[in-house]
Amino acid sequence: MQQPRVFLKWTCPACHRVEQSGRKELIDRLRDLGMLRRDDGRNLDLLLELARSKAADFTCPGCESAGFLPLEVSGDDDFDDLPPAKPCMACGSMIPPERVDLFPESDLCARCQQKIDQGESLSGDDYCERCGTPLVVRKTSAGVTRYQQVCPNCRR
Fold it and tell me: Quick check: 130 and 154 in contact, CB under 8 A?
């Protein structure tokens, strides 16, 4: 289940500089201060309280004064944690990061996976290059069982 989207608005009390970031940047800043371990950072209220307690250690990038604090605005920052999109092995289109996150082992996009689930072929190479006859699948079992597509006319 995904957490609600969170945007943070960082404000400087001295120069009134405002920056927006997500939960990931807050976690990174707290880790740089040694306040979080690798698996911490799921509870936003705890993260904001840790940031308030270390306000003197957060400096404004503009004026270098202490007290650069985050305030929760709204939204969802979970898209920062998604893996990058990757190409589909069958058609070459990009698999969305959300699908890669849900099915990390999958190398097929949803459309190609649906074709396989319905029993359709993904490749267009089901005809003999020489004579155009539909290829048939032949099983060879000399040791390890193997399957080959063979033209019944050309035997290639």
Answer: yes
